[in-house]
Structures are given as structure tokens and as C-alpha cells.
Amino acid sequence: MWRLNIGLIFLLFFDQTAELKKYRITGSAQGTTYSIIYYAGDSVITKSQIDSILNKLDSSFSLYKPYSLISRFNASQKGIRVDKHFINVLQKSFEAYKETNGLFDITVQPLVQAWGFGTKKIDSLPGKQYVSSLVKCVGSNMLELNGDFLSKKKPCVKIDLNGIAQGYSVDVMANFLESSQVTNYLVELGGEIRVKGKKQPSGEQMKIGIESPNAMDFKSLSIQRIVTTDSGAITTSGSYRKFYENKGKKITHIIDPKTGYPVQNELISVTVYARDAITADAYDNALMLMGLKKAMAFIEQKRELAAYFIYRKNGKIVDTASTRFQFVNSEK
User: Which residue of 101, 239, 260, 282 is most buried, as measured by CB atoms within 10 A?
Assistant: First the structure.
């Protein structure tokens, strides 16, 4: 199945002669769709179980639900107590914030809202002075986690976990499958993917398609590369996925927490391969912000990561990859 509205497209083919049956569960969650394919002797995983897991995660991470932990934290003056899911995401967020020198920053929410990618509509683009005032409320160093209490140093500090929560959600679902002794599966949520095992009984590796715009106007998409793997996670961040135009200028949802402005560089998308989806998801946006040269230098220093880049060069769309990405089997 090919889905052209997400950065990653998975390709799995049904085998009528399979000893293990192929099961598929689909649904909607976190403002997008999910799909799970697994091979088992029986339907050991049900849609109601998956929806229950995702509903629980929504009660922690959803900015659209006023009762969620993230909404309550953002509305608080000093902070609130959070659950284990929140703590897990916070710990990885703090790690990525430090490793990327602040380019991955969950406190970017005021800027995301100001540029029109938040929960409320905007009437006009933010001015320079307003952006400068919001930047003063951004910085994960203004967060502190003590036990299960997350505190903020300024009341204006608000968080947005959209850059990492879907990856974490994919991991939670994958771990649930494994706890049910499912060893061959593909889990996808909003284009973020984690796989383990192979198609049964053929033993073929899972195939994941990475898409790219056909032209600079981003009006059409095609498969740029197909990745085959039997373990790990792949996530993609791209400037072509969420954007709008204002006075001929493209405004993307990827906001630089340091400058306060949407990213403007040659990168079109970054696909990250990691052991788990939360790690891949934590770094793909930050790599987009770095630009190709710095992003490549960064990723080559991370033995646990690999990355594939699509970018503009001399009026054309081209691609390249980090050294370790070559060990993730792929084809054009």
C-alpha cells in the first residue's frame, strides 16, 4: 500500500500460502492515521487494545484535549505531576536538547502557535518584536523534572511534544506486540515506522518507501528510495509536509527555537534510522534545522544513527546519505 500524504510509505505484500496469518489493524489517532501489520497464528492483537493504548497516550500528549497532562502543564503557572509516559518522553527530549545544542526543544510551543501551526488559528504572521518576546519563553533549560513533578521557571514556558510523541507512541505499540509474543511486525503512525522480523512465510524483509517531491513546488510526490530492514525504526521530517505560502514565501512548520523563525535552508527532508522510533523522531527535526553540512557532520558522529537527506542543489532535487545508512539496505 502506498500512502502519499506521509513521509514514509510501507510496502507489504500478502501471501495466501503463509503458515502464519497476516493481520492488519488500522485507525486514527493523534491527528493522523495508524497501521499495524503483524504475522501470527491467531489474532492476538485487537484494534480495541491498540485504541486503548493510543487514547491513554493522548491523555498525556494531546494539545487538543484540555484535560491532557500537556494542556494542564501549559496552563499552569509552575508545573504539574506527570505520568510515566510523559517522563519517558521528557528524558529523551532533554537528551536530544543537549546533544543538538538546543535545536531540538520541546518548549518551542509558543513559536509553533505564533506561526500558525498550533491549536488556534492566526490572523497574521508574527512581527519581529513579538517573535523576540516569545524566544525568551523558549528553552528546555527552563524545565526541571524532580521525580514525577515537572516544573517551569517562567509561567510563559509551554511545551509541544509533536516532534517526538509519535515516535514514542510507535515504540509503545511495538513493545505491546512483543509482550504478546509477536516477533514479525510493522507499526506505523503518521509515517513514523518501526519494524521487527520478516514477512511470513517468505522470509522477505519489510520494505519502506521514502518519498520526495517531484519538483520544487512540492505539488506532487514520488518514491525516492526503498529501504529494506528486519529491525529498527525510521522516521522522516520534511519541509514539504506542513507548510503554507505568504507573499510568495514558504512558511514551514519546522521552527528554529533559537531564532524563532521557520527553517530556511537547502534540506527538503531528513530520514533517520535508529534502534527505536523515539530516538529517530527526536533527531529528524533537529537535523533539518542544521542544514546539510552540519547535519551530516553531526550524524556521522552518532554510531547509533544513520540518515538519508533529500535537498536542493542548483535548481534540482538530489539526495545523499550518511556512511552508516549504506548498511540499511536500500534501492532507488
Answer: 282
All three cell numbers of 320: 545523499
In this structure, which amino acid lies at residue 67?
Y
Per the CB < 8 A criterion, the answer to whether 191 and 159 are in contact is: no
Sign of the dihedral defined by the CA atoms of residues 63, 116, 224, 26, in that order: positive
| Cell numbers representing residue 50 in the block | 491498540
Q: How far apart are CA 289 and CA 298, in angstroms?
A: 12
Q: Is the pLDDT of residue 230 over 60?
A: yes
Element holding 93 (H helix, E strand): helix 84-99
SS (H, E, C) 105-147: CHHHHHHHHHCCCCCCCCCCCCCHHHHHHHHCCCCHHHEEEEC
Beta bridge partners of 211: 223
Say which DSSP state 301 is in.
Answer: T
| Alpha-helix runs per DSSP H in 206-306 | 277-290, 292-300
Q: In terms of Cα–Cα distance, which of 9, 50, 6 is closest to 32?
A: 6
Cell matching residue 48? 480495541
Superfamily of domain 64-152: ApbE-like superfamily (1.10.3980.10)
CA–CA distance, 269 with 288 (Å, rounded to integer):
7
Q: Tell me if the pTM is above 0.85.
A: yes
What pLDDT, in 10s, does the model give residues 244-278? 677 667 788 899 999 999 998 999 999 999 999 99
Q: Are 74 and 109 in contact (CB under 8 A)?
A: yes
